[in-house]
Amino acid sequence: MSKNICFIDGLEGILKYRExxxxxxxxxxxxxxxxxxxxxxxPGDKELAEYSARLQGEREINREVMDVIRMYKLNIxxxxxxxxxxxxxxxxxxxxxxxxxxxxxxxxxxxxxxIPTIIAAYYRVASGKEPVPPDRSLSHGANFLYMIRGSKPxxxxxxxxxxxxxxxxxxxxxxxxxxxxxxxxTLADLYSAVVSGLCTLKGPLHGGARAEVMTMIQEIACPExxxxxxxxxxxxxxxxxxxxxxxxxxxxxxxxxxxxxxxxLAEAKGDMHWYETAEVIxxxxxxELVEKKGxxxxxxxxxxxxxxxxxxxxxxxxxxxxxxxxxxSGWIAHSFDQYEKKKIIRPRAFMLDEC
Length: 355
Ligand code: CMC
Description:
The protein is mostly helical. The protein folds into 2 domains: about 1-205 and about 315-340, Citrate Synthase, domain 1; about 210-310, CATH 1.10.230.10. About 60% of the residues lie in helices and about 5% in strands. It is built from 16 helices and 3 strands. A 3-stranded antiparallel β-sheet has the order 1-2-3. Strand 1 and strand 2 (about 15) form a beta hairpin. Helix 6 packs antiparallel against helix 16 (about 315-340). Bound molecules: carboxymethyl coenzyme *A. Carboxymethyl coenzyme *A binds near residues 243, 244, 245 and 300.
């Protein structure tokens, strides 16, 4: 694969997947972006139709998987269930230990297709409801919302969740992708690489920040409370979740797109209060940390994405796992790249001082 999987300019706030700017990619389907990441090129109409049909055909999960999902406690984060179930389903994959390119592609399709079904099934069971089987006629995003709700989403909601998956799909050597790559570098199977990614995404300094942002905004409750809440947190030297980034020293372009999407949703729902609460938080953090202290702490990918989940009635319990629905394509693209290299990643301990 010739093109870089990802390009980030953290000073200018530029993000590209396979040399295509995120502002262009966000208007495509998740299937097309996933294909781009994994295959290295955007699909033509025929390739995309075939790829989407293969994904749609692999969405179902079997009865044994449902039995495991029903054994979970009801009040846990969906990531706990997802992590184990992805590991569990590997035994049903006839290609598990076939590392040919074709078999790895079939495994990728199964993983990308089944992860949303697993999350939705766990959520339905945890909410005391029957799981909703996937609908092959719906897009990746619309089908996920349909499976968690039992009814089809509005056109805008379907578009927004699709964009959420695209914006979450890839981000170079972030912590979870690094984990996946390390696992793939040992030539372990693709399920193992994806489970490593899931485990690492879970932490609150990475994908887990999204759920914490939701909890924080719920606690703040309205725009009038936001400034005082944030100032108090800063007074206690606590970090504000959804802000700051190891690479971006300016606005994260995904954060900017998520902000626009959350405003669109707020306007469509005729309820601006979550959006306005988030905006007061943003203004307070930027004023206190950027303008007064010169620290480059801007909203990251997890801040306004949390706001869109609030408008779509998605609970914090699902937030990190939804990040994984998007990110799995990135983990797979990097694992494939690592398989081609056939070289184990084995840093020395002194390198940790630079992390
Ligand atoms: N709120 C307040 N202060 C912050 C924040 C924040 N969110 N982030 C960084 N700072 C301050 C930090 O206190 C430190 O100040 P000082 O130099 O005075 O000690 C300085 O900025 C540098 O922080 P750092 O933690 O050394 O920076 P890092 O590059 O190691 O960490 C980060 C990056 C994303 C882990 C961090 O900004 C953070 O913990 N943010 C909150 C959690 C979060 O939103 N995580 C999602 C990350 S982006 C998407 C993803 O990976 O999932």
